Amino acid sequence: MKAPVVIAVTVNWNRSGDTIACLQSLKKQTLVLNQIIVVENGSDEEPSFISQNPYNDIEVIDTGANLGFGAGANVGIRRALELGADYVLVINNDTVADAHFLKALIEGSQKAGFEISAPLIYYYAEPDEVWSAGGDICKLIGLPLDAHHRKNPPAELVKRTFLTGCCLLFSRHALKSLGLFDEAYFMYYEDLDLMARALEAKTCVGVVPSAKLLHKEAQSSGGYLNPNERYWSARSLMRYSKRATRWWNAVPLWAHRLISIGLWTFRLLLKRKPEALKAYWQGIRDGLRTKQADQPVSK
Question: Residue 217's Cα: distance from chain center in Å?
């Protein structure tokens, strides 16, 4: 049987040291990648990733501007498909992969018939604690009730309806049938948007727990509860919520959002984060004002 063509895509925006560490772990895989693509997404740091890149056999695509995660990832995905990829691994640059990660992920996905899959993701700072094991979308509120199953991670292959965009293995068929990330999400919720489309299309999605990945949380946004993180999280959630609203779930969905907004406001006040609170409310306003495109999915 012919071995599948597997190409990895990662998006770099500043923090080139993290990207290089990620590449080093991908280079050490027991199942060798056919190609690695780094999308240089308009970084403004010096020295740049391009000047520090230690590998001359990876492909670097310079976008010339920060397109946001979804659009940046799509640049790399399109290139991977052009190169004939059977599988495209979209992986955050602030991750470090176990040496057997890719082999386990491919083999597990093929065994279970997953068209989209993810590894078991652990905290980089606490490598024995699970950061994400996937979740399941509740259609009434349009969100996973337990997005990551951190307390009860699976030991065996398991189907999910939500996987975090931190690391996703796509089959070529899934990308061709579902389309790519919605580029209107500059940061956050582009993964949930895509997972909601996969659920609607009855695409087989799941977690391969034997594949292990470490994640440095919220690096691209400046860290947890950072104003930038709060702004984009709120804005993208409002955009997604408008898309997820149907006549039969409008009341529970928006009741949930109002409660969530109140709790986040109280939390940020309690933690004395005035700038983050201001950014959070600005994100809510901008997300509600943003018009929905008729065909937002880039294919």
Answer: 12
* Two structure tokens written together for 63: 């976008």
- Residue of 49, 44, 45, 41 whose CA lies nearest to 21: 49
Q: Which residues contact 35 (CB under 8 A, 6 or more apart)?
A: 7, 8, 58, 59, 80, 83
Nearest to 215 by CA among 109, 108, 105, 98: 98
d(CA 118, CA 91): 10
> How do the residues of the chain divide into helix, strand and coil, expressed in percent and rounded to 5?
40, 20, 40
10-residue averages of pLDDT along the chain (299 residues)? 93 94 98 97 89 94 95 98 98 97 98 98 95 95 88 93 97 98 95 97 98 81 78 96 96 98 97 96 94 50
Q: pTM for the full model?
A: 0.92
The structure tokens listed for 145 are: 């009730």
Cα distances (angstroms) measured from residue 194 to each of 22, 260, 277 = 24, 22, 28
Return the structure tokens found at 41: 């997404």
Q: Which two tokens stand for residue 257?
A: 């959002």
Q: Which residues pair with 95 in a beta bridge?
A: 215
Residue that the structure tokens 């702004």 belong to: 231
Residue with tokens 């399109």: 78
Following DSSP, what letter does each residue of 252-299 receive, concatenated?
HHHHHHHHHHHHHHHHHHHTT-HHHHHHHHHHHHHHHHSPPPSS-B--
Q: How far apart are CA 2 and CA 155, in angstroms?
A: 29
The token pair that represents 214 in the structure block: 């470490």
The pair of three-digit structure tokens given for residue 81, joined into one six-digit string? 């498909």
Distance CA 207, CA 209 (A): 6
